[in-house]
Specification:
The protein has 209 residues and is an all-alpha fold. The protein has helices at 2-27, 31-39, 54-58, 63-87, 91-106, 119-129, 131-148, 151-170, 174-189, 191-199. Helix 1 packs parallel to helix 5 (91-106), helix 6 (119-129) packs antiparallel against helix 7 (131-148) and helix 8 packs antiparallel against helix 9. It starts with a helix and ends in a 10-residue tail after the last helix.
Length: 209
């Protein structure tokens, strides 16, 4: 029994830093830039909000590129959490991995630390943590976006409700703290959008550059 406990500890000590680093590097893959380059679409960092994310890619008029960006950015968030849960079920490690892949998207090593706002990646993370949590967050986003036509507003409201929903369903733990941190970072990254919303200058969904 003692030997098994020590082996588990050693495995955790070995895998945890590797998983966290891998998650950050995975998050650093900015698919808005990668997809638009591959498809010959204008770099999203040069128009609209200049944000390398699916919503800004959509302003190029290329819906396929926008959908691919959304799916791949969400997938990397899901994959990081899936790997963390596969190798180590500790809520501490899962939470840190989730935060690492999110930070990778916001501050990507491969793109001079200038990344997106993290909405799609956060959705993938929530789906990886608990599918119903991700579905609830997406439903919140979809309802707000449908009625108000502002992706940023939908993202901000979803960011507020996501940690509250997690705590309500699963209780406060290390993962909840990381989701709260992610929500705070997401809101911070939307600070210009908040200003634009207040001034009535925010672009609506699908509005071209």
């Amino acid at each position: 029994m003692v030997l098994n406990i020590m082996q588990t500890f050693q495995a955790s000590a070995f895998f945890a830093p590797s998983l966290i680093l891998l998650a950050y590097l995975l998050g650093s893959l900015s698919f808005a830039v990668i997809v638009t380059r591959a498809m010959g679409v204008a770099d999203p960092r040069t128009y609209g909000s200049k944000n390398p994310g699916a919503t800004n890619v959509l302003r190029s008029g290329n819906k396929v590129a926008a959908v691919l960006t959304l799916v791949l950015d969400a997938f990397k968030g899901w994959l990081a959490v899936f790997l963390a849960m596969y190798f180590n079920s500790s809520t501490v490690i899962v939470g840190l991995v989730a935060l690492a892949v999110f930070l990778g998207h916001l501050y990507p090593l491969f793109f001079k630390f200038a990344g997106g706002k993290g909405v799609a990646t956060a959705l993938g993370i929530l789906l990886g943590i608990a599918p119903l949590l991700g579905i609830a967050a997406f439903a919140t986003w979809a309802i707000i976006a449908y009625f108000f036509r502002y992706s940023s507003l939908a993202s901000l409201i979803s960011a507020v409700f996501a940690p509250l929903t997690y705590i309500l369903w699963f209780g406060p733990d290390e993962i909840a703290l990381c989701i709260i941190a992610m929500s705070g970072l997401l809101i911070y990254r939307h600070r210009q959008n908040i200003s634009n919303l207040m001034l009535g200058k925010e672009r609506k969904l699908g509005e071209k550059r």
